[in-house]
Design a protein that fits this description.
By secondary structure, the protein is an alpha/beta fold. It has 27 helices and 14 strands. The strands form 2 sheets. An 8-stranded mixed sheet has the order 3-4-2-1-5-6-7-8, sandwiched between helices. A 6-stranded parallel sheet has the order 11-10-9-12-13-14, sandwiched between helices. α1 (3-16) runs antiparallel to α2 and α3 packs antiparallel against α4 (54-67). It is globular and about 90 Å long. The N and C termini lie far apart (80 Å).
Length: 597
């Protein structure tokens, strides 16, 4: 080993041990002997950045990058130095260059994810510039990785349009599990509101609908299901119902509770023979380069045929926990359903691939668990809220639309509790934010709104109910962080309702269940006029923009008479929209119609 490399090795040991003076002296000794040495420049720059001299770091690491432009680490640390000096656009471009080099070298998702996260904190224009940098230098042939990565960076719907176009133009380039994995990846990102540019609605009713139908058709074709399935003849009564979900996850998962509730009512209140089919059809195993990498959960104890119990009822369920959406798994599901021979299949939730595989062989009804356009090939597609329409839907789906109200069954309420029981001060207005995906749904805009509300109401508190991991770190950066309390998962959120001033809804697609339960307990809701919460709550609780959102929340805290009126309206709204038994009765009427639809 030559002297320069030996000196550099000793210097880095000093650096790691925190002996910065010794490290700096040796880095400079290397540069004296070898001016422009990229590693010495880089490490001396890192030392400067760690020592609070970011401008010096930009100069030194920038010279290192000029000497070795192929090092992702050098570009990444230059990005950190540029960010520290406030040069955010140049920082994003440096992170983008590091990300591209890693991706082109076949790097796994971990480091690429970290760099993408650094870019995504910037404004939209900067994110678009970073995405363009990646797009220009991207050298891999993986269609799924390229377009999903670009969408992750800039949120431009055009990226997903390019991905779906590639599959629609030549589906045989991709396996069924690969098509399936990319679909659920896109669906997750869109549900979480990751789109920043382009018309999401037009994409979902156009390209994504075509992609979904192709996925169902290719699954049926390549897995030879048309020959395997039994075709059912129309029946004049509905005695057996197969309720097919995408996934059942157990306690704490509202769609699981709702699926069980529909099934047990069909069985116990209307005398039907019911089985829940739990195919775990949402992607569990990575099948291509789509990013962000993800895996939907499964509940390990749900395996094979069993009886599940809740709320004093017992319902039969068949689960398929295999982790790949392959031919063996799909054939096993088809054989089980055909053996049960249902008079109708209820596709519980949109994008229900397994239920839609039966759409040409048996009556299928889509019962959406969310507002908006549900991707479905069912004979009848129901609304989510009574006021829903098929406006803007593809023509063939609009013909299959039927009005419906999802309805709700309240969880049992526990004993009275005080704010102190939740670790909250007794005095002052208390606003609730509730959800299971708040890490994704409570974004920067919503947190800024929360901060502004707390500025206006110095005695107010925010209670966040639901499991969170990354949200507390972002809350800690708020001006009023000490008045925002993360409570985690609660066994009785209704006890918290009785202590609350209002329910605040972030801009999101989901949240309908938690809002319905708040309304039932007389808690006024504040929400923008979009998504499930707006559908459940109705126009009395929607506002036009952020300014109106703040004014409504302030009025609920300061005007007792107004808050009382809103509370009464909340209870009335739940009484109007929450009758689950009536929804099940209506579902059975549609099941008869579906026999000949």
């Amino acid at each position: 080993m030559d002297t320069i490399e030996q000196t550099l090795a000793v210097a880095t040991e000093h650096h790691r041990a925190g002996r910065t003076t010794e490290a700096e002296s040796l880095y400079r000794e290397v540069l004296a002997a070898s001016p422009g040495h990229p590693d010495a420049l880089h490490l001396l720059g890192v030392l400067g950045l760690q020592g609070g001299r970011p401008a010096e770091a930009v100069d030194l690491i920038g010279r290192a990058v000029a000497g070795d432009p192929t090092s992702p680490l050098l570009h990444a640390n230059l990005g950190h130095a540029l960010h520290a000096t406030g040069q955010t656009r140049d920082a994003a471009l440096s992170f983008a260059r590091a990300l591209t080099l890693l991706t082109n070298d076949g790097e796994g998702w971990g480091n690429v994810s970290a760099l993408a996260g650094l870019i995504r904190r910037y404004d939209d224009e900067t994110r678009r510039a970073a995405a363009a940098e990646v797009d220009t230098a991207y050298a891999m042939g993986d269609v799924m990785r390229r377009h999903s990565l670009l969408f992750l960076l800039d949120g431009d719907i055009a990226r997903y349009e390019a991905l779906t176009d590639a599959v629609l133009e030549d589906p045989m380039r991709f396996t069924v599990p690969s098509i399936h994995y990319a679909f659920w990846g896109m669906a997750m990102q869109l549900f979480q509101g990751a789109a920043r540019r382009g018309d999401s609605g037009a994409f979902q009713s156009g390209n994504l609908t075509d992609y979904y139908r192709l996925m169902v058709d290719e699954t049926a074709l390549r897995y030879h299901l048309r020959r395997r399935m039994k075709r059912a003849t129309p029946r004049d009564t509905v005695k057996r119902v197969a309720l097919i979900t995408n996934q059942m996850l157990g306690a704490g998962h509202q769609p699981t509770a709702d699926a069980f509730d529909f099934a047990r009512r069909l069985q116990d209140e209307f005398g039907r023979e019911v089985v829940i089919i739990n195919p775990n059809a949402m992607a569990i195993t990575g099948e291509n380069g789509f990013v962000p990498e993800y895996s939907y959960n499964i509940t390990e104890e749900y395996e094979g045929e069993q009886v599940i119990a809740a709320f004093g009822a017992r319902v039969r369920m068949m689960s398929f926990p295999q982790k790949r959406f392959d031919e063996e798994k799909v054939n096993a599901i088809v054989d089980y359903v055909d053996g049960f021979d249902p008079d109708v299949i209820v596709a519980f939730g949109g994008s229900n691939v397994v239920a839609d595989l039966f759409s040409g062989a048996r009556p299928v009804i889509c019962l959406p668990t969310s507002s908006g356009l549900p991707l479905s090939m069912a004979r009848l597609v129901l609304g989510y809220g009574e006021a829903d329409t098929a406006e803007g839907w593809p023509a063939d789906m609009a013909e299959r639309f039927r009005p419906f109200s999802f309805g709700w069954t309240l969880p049992p309420a526990g004993p009275e509790r005080s704010r102190a029981d939740f670790g909250l001060p007794e005095a002052g207005p208390l606003f609730l934010v509730v959800g299971n995906r708040l890490d994704q749904e409570a974004g920067p805009d919503f947190l800024a709104l929360v901060d502004s509300l707390l500025d206006r109401l110095p005695e107010a508190r925010i209670a966040v109910a639901g499991g969170v991991e990354s949200l507390p770190q972002r809350i800690a950066a708020l001006r009023n962080a000490d008045r925002v309390h993360t409570l985690g998962d609660l066994d009785d959120v209704r006890a918290l309702h009785r202590l609350a001033t209002a329910y605040l809804n972030p801009r999101r697609q989901g949240g309908g269940g938690s809002a319905a339960f708040a309304l039932a307990d007389g808690v006024p809701v504040v929400t923008a006029a979009a998504g499930d919460v707006a559908t459940v709550a109705g126009p009395a609780f929607t506002v036009a923009d952020d300014a109106a959102y703040l004014e409504r929340a302030v009025a609920l805290a300061g005007d007792a008479a107004f808050r009382d009126r809103q509370s009464a309206e909340a209870r009335a709204r739940f009484a109007e929209a929450g009758d689950r038994r009536a929804s099940v009765e209506r579902l059975l009427a549609y099941a008869l119609e579906a026999q000949t639809a």
